[in-house]
């Protein structure tokens, strides 16, 4: 592993793809000219570390707030809590990897090739688990909002706490298992194809639910108002809008990376594609920014969560004094 290389799921796979024709890696030393003569975009390691630490703290606060406030103990917030944990995987892997590389570059850490390989495997699994679980929980929240809006009177019997916990367990088990398999078979293009397909199916599934929700929401809201449940309807639609924002940010932040994967499949040696590949470190910054922005969206859209976060920060400030 190059001392300054970064490898979000999976550096090993990216190295394999590029070594096919040019015997180069996707992540050369930042700013170094690769075999095509295209310079990699330089991103200071300190910026990765700073963004990683900020997003890690933010998501820890979100998880702690949901655990602390009993008013937030509902299926939707359980799923949001899991989404925050998914973002934490990105933050933790980024911080660990950046610290590891900084210490190694400054001669403060001596490691063997076997240790580097193990670090690659762990970080790759964390990142892959993060993207698979994030997409899964976005779909789960979309389905939860759909049930809340169109089956409002039966919601609590359909989406029970036990079912929510079971869904969470299945998503995490599937994410970790699939991620481990992806890393084991990282040299197979089918891995990239599976990830890209899963990303596309997730967007289609969510888009279909939203299309149905927003087309029929007006008609359904009149029925709910007739039953004196207008407040529940407003809350449900607010949750749906929040998820729309989350999904939009996810697509913006992860979209360039998935386009990167698609181009690896269809034109790995094309000069224009290689020019796009040279911006890979910027795509990593966007991925980290997604983990940083999500907690801000949670706090902005949920008054209860925002109130709890303020209390926690204020109490921490008083304790520090």
UniProtKB/TrEMBL annotation:
It comes from the Eukaryota. This is Melanocyte-stimulating hormone receptor. One of its GO terms (molecular function) is melanocyte-stimulating hormone receptor activity. It is found in: Cell membrane. Its main location: membrane. The chain crosses the membrane at residues 47-67, 76-102, 122-143, 164-184, 190-219, 240-266, 278-300. Residues 58-298 form the G-protein coupled receptors family 1 profile domain. It comes from Carassius auratus. The lineage of its organism: Eukaryota, Metazoa, Chordata, Craniata, Vertebrata. Keywords: Cell membrane, G-protein coupled receptor, Glycoprotein, Membrane, Receptor, Transducer, Transmembrane, Transmembrane helix.
């Amino acid at each position: 592993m190059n001392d300054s290389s970064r490898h979000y799921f999976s550096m090993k796979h990216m190295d394999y793809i590029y070594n096919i024709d040019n015997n180069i890696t996707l992540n050369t030393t930042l700013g170094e000219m690769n075999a095509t003569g295209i310079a990699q975009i330089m991103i200071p390691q300190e910026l990765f570390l700073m963004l990683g630490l900020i997003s890690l703290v933010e998501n820890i606060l979100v998880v702690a707030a949901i655990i602390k406030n009993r008013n937030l103990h509902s299926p939707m917030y359980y799923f949001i809590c899991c989404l925050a944990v998914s973002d934490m995987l990105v933050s933790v892997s980024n911080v660990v990897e950046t610290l590891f590389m900084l210490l190694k570059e400054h001669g403060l850490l001596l490691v063997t090739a076997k240790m580097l390989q193990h670090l690659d495997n762990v970080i790759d699994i964390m990142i892959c688990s993060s993207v698979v679980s994030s997409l899964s929980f976005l779909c789960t929240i979309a389905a939860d909002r759909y049930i809340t809006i169109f089956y409002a009177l039966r919601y609590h019997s359909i989406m029970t706490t036990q079912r929510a916990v079971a869904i969470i367990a299945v998503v995490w088990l599937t994410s970790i298992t699939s991620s481990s398999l992806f890393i084991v078979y990282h040299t197979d293009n089918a891995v990239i194809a599976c990830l890209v397909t899963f990303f596309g199916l997730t967007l289609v599934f969510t888009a279909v639910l939203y299309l149905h929700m927003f087309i029929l929401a007006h008609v359904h809201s009149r029925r709910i108002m007739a039953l004196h449940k207008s407040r529940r309807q407003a809350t449900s639609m607010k949750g749906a809008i929040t998820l729309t924002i989350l999904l939009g940010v996810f697509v913006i932040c992860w979209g360039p990376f998935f386009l990167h994967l698609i181009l690896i499949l269809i034109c790995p040696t094309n000069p224009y594609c290689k020019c796009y590949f040279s911006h890979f470190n910027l795509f990593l910054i966007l991925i980290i920014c997604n983990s940083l922005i999500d907690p801000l969206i949670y706090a902005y859209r949920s008054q209860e969560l925002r109130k709890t976060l303020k209390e926690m920060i204020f109490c921490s400030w008083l304790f520090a004094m």
